Give the backbone structure.
Amino acid sequence: MNDRKLKYMLNDTSSYDEIYEIKDLFKSIKRNKISFFKFLGVSIFFSLFIAFTKTKTWEGDFQIVLQDNSELKNSLLLNSPISEKLGTDVENIKTKVGILKSSSILMPVFEYYKNQKIQKNKNVDNLLFKKWIKKHLKINLTDKTKILNIKFTDSDKDIIIPILNNISNQYQTYSKKSRLRELELQSNYLKKQISLYRIQSNESLKKVQEFASDLDLIIPREKINIKSDIENSNSGIPNVSSFIIPNVEIENIRITAANEIKEIDLQLSKIRNLEDSELLQYIFYTIPSRGTGVPIDTNELKLIEEKLVFKRKLYRENDEEIQNLKKRKSLLIEILKDRTIGFLQAKKLFLKSKLEASIRPKDSLLNYKELLRKASRDELTLINLENKYRSLKLEEAKQKDPWELITKPTLNPYPSSPNKKRILFLGLILGFISGGAYSLFKDYRSNLIFNLKTLKKITRCKTVINLKENEKSNWKIQINALISRNILKTETIGIQTFGSKVNTKIKELEKVLTQTELKVDYYISDKINDLEKCDLFIIAATLGDTKINEIEKTSDIIQMQNKNIICLILI
């Protein structure tokens, strides 16, 4: 026989061992089915008793939409520079739910509940608010919404709706009070800040005026326009340019004078270095047109030019009259040049005086700008506070609806507990577990071996031959395979039998052994002492009919003799 066939016939039961626990449990229940069904029946009886005798509990519920004051805050404080101080963060909805569960809101409902119970002769003297909330009331939010779910349970069906209506009224009253309280707190805060910033703004402006008076400065007109910038802005905040303080007037005077002096110096340099009388003539014409106010009369020069043009058409260039006119023109140009230079120098002197008068210490101007900037910011903050206070008063005048009820308080038509199906299901599970546990315990106390794994563990033998009643035709093949693989001709086999069922079938086993292909000596006995001279041992047993202590004793004796158990035969 090949190895595959031998392995099949010797039946290595490793796969069987992996699932023996589950099979063992059901086999144990089957062996002890009377006890198992007793436990199961008792458990079902008690579960039904509880399901039909337990006090019924009724449940009612309603839903309400929570509205915080974030819309109010956002409308009043949007883009405000004081928004951080006034707290524009949206109120935590979870915190509000915690408030709605507190005794400050629900204590009147609790007192109403106790009074109703007292009227029905119920003892509620030891009932505390926290225990009442935990046992009867469930308040939670629907995920990712502001919808609040309120559920109330009680054994008194008639009290459910009145309690839910009471809770609804308390929540709506709280929503109105909460809004009014929020408006009141903001109003008080704004009034206090307006008073402080009005004083601060006046002091800042006073410092600017005193500083400007000491240095002979003029307050720039642009500062006054901040208020109009705010009024014209959609957001209520002026442009960034409104915070940038422009040059003060004295700086503009100094810069203008310095630039004009540079221009005069350039004109003087050109006039002094220019030899061309024709170009000088045109310079004289242009200076008055620039608005310099030069008191130079160029009309006579124009008349001489006209006469020269006329005479040159009648006479030659060397004519005496033409020469006289040219000399007169040159003399007049020199006079105009001197007068122009003198006028420009006088104007330069005037501008230098003006420049010196406009010079102020550098730090003083910087300090003045800082004072202007602070005064502007104080004024801006004051204007914003006044605008917010005005908006708050308008908001106070509005009549807002309380929190909206999505569903009205409703009583469920069926009791929420006891859940008879659930109680019965738990009873079945408990009965099965307790009955199964008792069956296993009963098998343990019987001292019998019911599974193959226990038998293999005690005998330290892994080779098993299962001689089934309906497969007697294969017994000979399996025995031949065992003998040819494990036993020599010179060795004798001792077959130790256990259990009454094995003893009834021992003759059939003997008959098979006599018909094996390899003749060996064997001895069969139910006593280990009768098999002392044998070289190898086979244990023949029946599960459920073999005692653990007998197998352990036989196995220990064989191990003490340094002999082996080569096979387990299950009959």
